[in-house]
Amino acid sequence: RFxxxxxxxxxxxxxxxxxxxxxxxxxxxxxxxxxxxxxxxxYDSEKLTLTVDNxxxxxxxxxxxxxxxxxxxxxxxxxxAGGSYGGKGxxxxxxxxxxxxxxxxxxxTYFGTGGADxxxxxxGGSVKLVVNNELTLDGYISANGIRRAGHAxxxxxxxxxxxxxxxxxxxGYVKANGGNAHDVSNLGSGGGGRIAVYxxxxxxxDLGSQISAAGGTAGSDxxxxxxxxxxxxxxxxxxxxxxxxxxxxxxxxxxxxxxxxISNVRLDLLEGAEFTQNIIGTxxxxxxxRFxxxx
Length: 295
Fold this sequence. Notes:
- With 295 residues, the protein is mainly β.
- Helices cover 0% and strands 40% of the residues.
- The chain is built from no helices and 21 strands.
- The strands form 4 sheets. Strands 1, 3, 5, 8, 11, 13, 15, 16, 17, 19 and 21 form an 11-stranded mixed β-sheet that branches.
- It is globular and about 55 Å long.
């Protein structure tokens, strides 16, 4: 733990590593300032949670949790499959790995997972931001999966980003994309992660174009992750699943109360999936066992 003047932390042109829970009156990332977390060693490694009154991230700065999740060693037994989380990792020449946390898209807190059984790729990290007043985002908040450059290996899955803010503004982006595999057909790219955004109002921030949790597309494509959007004045949010390919797989199960919007994805409805509203958009929807639809 540490203390900053007036409880206002300014990361000006340098990199700060934080793990655990912190509260500040203000937090500014400016002039290339970057906030990171220590790479996770297990699923239970400490996540990053920030509670602030106001937060500013300028266009040169950001929260960079790319590759800060866990490796695939001991987790992904197939030596060619991409890491899974919101979306399944690509098969490679073997079988894909079932994602964990399938039903927790509203409250995502998991790390992403590295692809294959090795230490050379990682999933994205995990962050929760609670902003009591305004989040001004002109830079980035990123928890993408990665693979080590120059290695013929699968990609890691995206991690988790959970934002709860009264107002969100700015021209920046939020991403939890799966990492691309080495571009050969027998290696799997990572699945997308999970993003949840709760907001009171938006001031120029476009939820449709500035948020992404797509799967990787090199080699065997990863499935798209999930993006949950909730206007805090409304009773029910929206679930968006936006991908780059209908060959990657996004599984969905349990009770889904939200309107589901899909774009260029393959959505697999697992046994017992139940929907109270429609699924709208383009892509493939494949049921596995019994499921329930509106009316």
